[in-house]
Amino acid sequence: MEKKVRGLRHLMVTVFLSGMGNFIVIPGITDVTMFALCPATDECSLAIYLSAFQQAMIGVGTVLMIPLIGNLSDEYGRKALLTLPMTLSIIPLAVLACSRTTNYYYAYYAVRTLTAMVSEGSINCLSLSYLADNISDSERASAFGILSGVSSGAFVCATLAARFLSTASTFQVATFVSTLALVYMRIFLEESRPDQVDSMIQPMLKEGEDIIQKDGNAPGKMPVFKKIPSLGDVICLLKSSPSFSQAAVAAFFASLAEGGMISSSMYYLKARFHFNKNQFADLMLIDGIASTISQLFLMPRLVSSIGDRRLLSVGLLVTCVNAILYSVAWSAWVPYAATTLSIVMVFAPPSVSPSLVYVTASFGFFVLA
């Protein structure tokens, strides 16, 4: 038991450092993009189109790659597969750490589009599966909330650092911290596989074995799949469990909305209210502090009293309200007010995760991405 607790502590540190390395560049990337593509202006259609195209390509890539990564992690271990996305995530940061001119930006754009197909979402999903390997079913929702709180804490620290760092220093620090996260993970994190622990349901992709589904709405036996899941396998899984398929649909549309907001919101605020790096950082600090407090202290108490399904409903409803407020913002203070809703919006991702992870890590990744 002590070994498991120690492993989870190292997992939390890994998630924190990795998240900080990736989050620290977010407040400044809009200004970097505008400077590279449309200098001396606050409006740039090309930047929005390129950002949307990149998000779409990354989304398609993750749908194809993350189920494979999840399946391989069942076979070779979470730590072994964590190495790949954590390494790839360093490369685009290093490009902009060298220079932020137009040519370097296009190099960053191309490299990040390719590497994010593997790294985007993989670290989070592998971390959730590592946690699921070592936490009992009844405690997973709270544990996922705590892990999300650690990520939110990394977001706060990264945004606070970005608020006071120059743009050039931001990307250099991001490269260093991401590299440190990789080294720390390789040295300290214990390997974990589903077949090494008692609390994890055995991987459904093992040949010749039947898996008993814990979903009360599902049939008693789950189908046995070959080693690399096909689209037909995914459809078969979704049909086998109504609860799983409903959670998958909720996660898909929530991720779709989040991707659309990420692609356009900062460019919208820059064009509408002339926001810059520091104001983006202020918004993100509010978001991160509210999310951290909620996930570390509020959500673990609520999930035991009202259940993760109701938390999911509340989180999704408030997310809709947040998007509406952004779309009709009539003054610069409205986005700040809307951002405070993060204290409730963050209920959604951890609430839907247990329904997806406990079946099998491999297929859970398909939806969580």
Automatic annotation (TrEMBL):
Subcellular localization, as worded in the UniProt entry: Membrane
Identification of the protein by name: Major facilitator superfamily (MFS) profile domain-containing protein
Organism: Gossypium raimondii
Gene Ontology MF: a single term: transmembrane transporter activity
Bilayer disposition of the protein: Multi-pass membrane protein
Pfam families reported in the protein's UniProt record: MFS_1 (PF07690)
Ranges that cross the membrane: 7-26, 46-68, 80-97, 109-131, 143-165, 247-268, 311-333, 345-368
One Gene Ontology cellular component: membrane
